[in-house]
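Sample pair:
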Amino acid sequence: MSDDNVKKRETYAMIERDNAMTEGKIEYLQMLQEPIGRMSTMSAIIKGFAATIVVGILGMARNEADILFLVLSLLVVIVLAFIDAHYLQYERRFRFLFNQVRLGKRALDFSMEITNDPKEIADAKAGTWACILALHNRLFYGVLTGTIAIALVRNAGG
């Protein structure tokens, strides 16, 4: 066999290996998109549920005796905000894994194991307080909490 044939075979083998790795990487990234999408969907469902509860209770709370309903709705909104932040934590951790694979910093092992390393969690902005205090959560739950607070003051004041 000539040197040219050997070089051609090595080149073709290298190209096939690169194509297989690219296909594997695409499959892995698609696989990682699924939980990211699910976490995002759950977050939207929780926000819709929180808004529905607040609107429903505000519609029922029209006198001083209904202050208990308003306080309970405030507690429900706070609990839902924490649950929403929990889903955001997982979404951000999966996004971190996605970016690690995308940038070639992680092996194509098709693992769905997300990081527990505190430094990586901080890099992904996936800490508990980082997610609770995320801008979109502060805005959404702040408006709901403010609305309940206004209704509390209005109903308590007579």
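The radius of gyration is 25 Å.
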